[in-house]
UniProtKB/TrEMBL annotation:
Native source species: Emiliania huxleyi (strain CCMP1516)
One Pfam family cited in the UniProt record for this chain: LRR_6
Keywords recorded for this protein, A-Z: Repeat
Keyword Repeat: yes
Organism lineage: Eukaryota, Haptista, Haptophyta, Prymnesiophyceae, Isochrysidales
Name of the protein: Protein nlrc3
Domain of life, source organism: Eukaryota
SMART domains: LRR_RI (SM00368)
Matching Gene3D superfamilies: Ribonuclease Inhibitor
SUPFAM superfamilies, A to Z: RNI-like (SSF52047)
Length: 481
């Protein structure tokens, strides 16, 4: 155990504690620690470390070191409930040390008594602002923010490499926090059980309006427990569970919770492999749910028909302001039906159809809907081959004076542009510009849209220019190509 002394302990005592503890860890030989007479200190202790825990001088040094503002317990043997130093450390934690601001230990190597004492300290501390629990590369946690003594209403702990130990600390702090209303623990290294620990605390606390548990290894069983939480919550308005594995069974449980829920407005189930069965359950729930306004079911292995099942319900329901159907197998026919939905919706402001295959004819249908739509502000059509590029085809099947890149030609009765010139096999590629040009024309008359994503569509230079010209001069417009 090393100690950084800022206040609360004499320099001499702190130095003795630091040296003795380093010897205990086998980091220094006896001579380097002041020439102590104990023969056990003449070499790194190795397997004799446990015996040294009983040394009264060592225990006294630990006692002094624990008065420091920064304490590292990783070198102490705290693995057994009846260990010699366990009582000292537990008593110290329970005393609410007033100088302590930074604490480090290895959760995986300490016993249950120490863990419980630590969680109790997290709930009660008025000083501790940096806590590390031995998870590699994990961000230290701030217990004062967790327990609410630093009154922050929103905590974003996403992507901080937190694991189950950190989740236990978060749960302990949040359990006594009266101000926190938004918590994001997504994209860490949590297990399902660790994530559910947070949920169980919140079921009792009932204050979060927003909870994000993205990529937390949540499966069908975990989803069922979360569904019970949703059913009983009168305050949770946003639930984000993207990139888990809840499957159709988990989606059905969430859908059942939605039937009787009157507060949740935003649900993100992206990347959960809910498939057609799960989508059908959600569509059925939407029929009787009057409050949900934002839904993301992208990248769930849906067929076009499954995705359209949700669209058809929503055409009657007309409540969603945001709908994400990324990578849902939607082709030109499905895009045409979605375009009809867009034309008739007076509330939909955001539509995500990226990574489908609506192609040229689908783009034309969407463009037609944009012409008369007065509410849609954000549209994502990236990755849909709107540029209409063909596979390699025989140059002999193409009509036109020139087969050079950019030349206008006719193929199967349609005017197209050469996107790749004739190769050694006598083949070329063509691009159908009508889809992207239709969108450009629609943008010229649509004054509401503020963002459009057209990346990954094999757009020709002419198509890009048409889009740029259409939105030129529109302050704040976000265009991605």
């Amino acid at each position: 155990m090393a100690a950084e002394v800022r206040r609360g302990v004499a320099d001499e005592a702190a130095e003795e504690a630091s040296q003795l503890v380093r010897v205990h860890l086998g980091l220094e030989r006896c001579a380097d620690a002041g020439g102590a007479a104990d023969t056990r200190l003449e070499a790194p202790l190795g397997d004799k470390a446990e015996a040294y825990n009983h040394d009264l001088r060592f225990q006294a040094a630990v006692g002094d070191a624990l008065k420091a503002s920064g304490v590292d317990l990783t070198g102490l043997d705290l693995g057994s409930d009846d260990g010699v130093m366990v009582g000292t450390v537990v008593a110290w934690m329970e005393s609410e040390p007033s100088a302590l601001t930074s604490l480090t230990l290895d959760w995986g190597k300490v016993c249950g008594r120490v863990r419980e004492a630590l969680l109790g300290a997290v709930r009660k501390t008025h000083t501790l602002v940096a806590l590390s629990v031995g998870e590699e590369r994990a961000m230290p946690l701030n217990p004062l923010q967790l327990n609410g003594r630093e009154a922050v209403p929103s905590l974003d702990l996403s992507g901080k490499r937190l694991g189950p130990a950190s989740a236990a600390v978060v749960a302990a702090g949040v359990s006594v926090n009266g101000v926190l209303t938004s918590l994001n623990l997504g994209f860490n290294d949590l297990t399902e059980e660790a994530a559910l620990g947070i949920v169980r605390v919140e079921r009792q606390r009932n204050k979060l309006t927003s909870l994000s548990l993205a990529r937390c290894s949540i499966g069908p069983t975990g989803a069922a427990e979360i569904a019970e939480y949703v059913s009983g919550s009168a305050v949770l308005t946003t639930l984000a569970l993207p990139h888990n594995s809840i499957g159709a069974e988990g989606a059905a449980a969430i859908a059942e919770a939605l039937r009787g829920n009157g507060v949740m407005t935003t649900l993100n189930l992206k990347g959960n492999n809910i498939r057609a069965e799960g989508a059908a359950a959600l569509a059925s729930a939407l029929r009787v749910n009057g409050v949900l306004t934002s839904l993301d079911v992208g990248s769930n292995g849906l067929t076009e028909e499954a995705a359209l099942g949700i669209v058809r319900v929503e055409r009657q329901r007309n409540k969603l302001t945001s709908l994400a159907l990324e990578n849902c197998g939607i082709g030109p026919t499905g895009a045409a039906e979605i375009a009809e939905y867009v034309s008739g919706s007076a509330v939909l402001t955001s539509l995500n159809l990226c990574n489908n295959n609506i192609h040229v004819t689908g783009a034309i249908a969407i463009a037609e809907a944009l012409r008369g739509n007065g509410v849609l502000t954000n549209l994502d059509l990236s990755g849909n081959n709107i540029g209409g590029e063909t596979d390699y085809i025989k140059a002999s099947e193409v009509e036109g004076e020139s087969k050079e890149v950019g030349a206008k030609v006719v193929y199967q009765g349609r005017e197209m542009v050469v996107s790749e010139g004739v190769d050694s096999d006598g083949e070329l590629k063509l691009a159908d510009r009508t889809g992207i040009l239709a969108i450009a024309k629609a943008l010229e008359v649509n004054g509401v849209l503020t963002s459009i994503d057209l990346r990954g569509n094999n757009l020709s230079d002419e198509g890009k220019k048409a889009i740029q010209d259409a939105v030129s001069g529109r302050e704040g417009f976000k265009l991605e190509m």
